[in-house]
Every structure is written in structure tokens, then in C-alpha cells.
Amino acid sequence: xPLTVLINPEITPLVEEQSEDxxxxxxxxxxxxxxxxxxxxxxxxLTPTGERIEREAEGFHARVVQHECDHLDGILYPxxxxxxxxxxxREELRHYKDETGKIHATPQTD
Length: 110
Hints:
The protein has one domain (about 5-95): Peptide deformylase (Peptide Deformylase, Alpha-Beta Complex). The chain is mainly beta. It is elongated. A 3-stranded antiparallel β-sheet has the order 1-4-5, with helices on one face. Strands 2-3-6 form a 3-stranded antiparallel β-sheet. It is built from 1 helix and 6 strands, in the order E-E-E-E-E-H-E.
């Protein structure tokens, strides 16, 4: 997805299901947390030249759009978390990785 500027974006979820995944942000340096987001969304916005954008997004693209639009409303990802026990320093995330490097929702035992 190329760099895109969204002016006055509006998001509509296309599914009720949300999935949790790890997010970090420069506004909360050194921290990560598991954040629920809608898996599939529809969004509209204007470009800097006034053209209307209408898109469907899913997966990582949908997560990023939701994350960035939250900033416009003064919301940081920890405010979206349902379990603040999963807000941690980035280096602690290593306990959540398995031998393949995949990150899980619960700590891995050694």
C-alpha cells in the first residue's frame, strides 16, 4: 500500500469479529500490547487534493488504518486494550515467542 494521506477519515466495520494482535507506537515508546481491532473495515476519506477515497481493508491494512485514525481522536492503543496485563516493555515480548519466532497471546514456557 503506498503512502496515503487521509483527511477526515470515517471507518465502518464490515464484520463484528475482532482479532487481537500486538501493536506498538512511537507515542508509547518501548511498549507493546495486544489490541483488539475489527478484521475487515470500509473507510472513506478525502485526499489533500479533495478526491474521495473509498476502500475496504482487512488484516494488517485494516489494523493500521484503525490505529492511525485513533490518533486523530486522541486515542492511544492502550486505551483499546481489554487486558492491560498484556501491556509490556518490548523486550519482554520475547517470552511470548515460540521457537519459530511466532508471537502468541500467552507466555511460552522454557
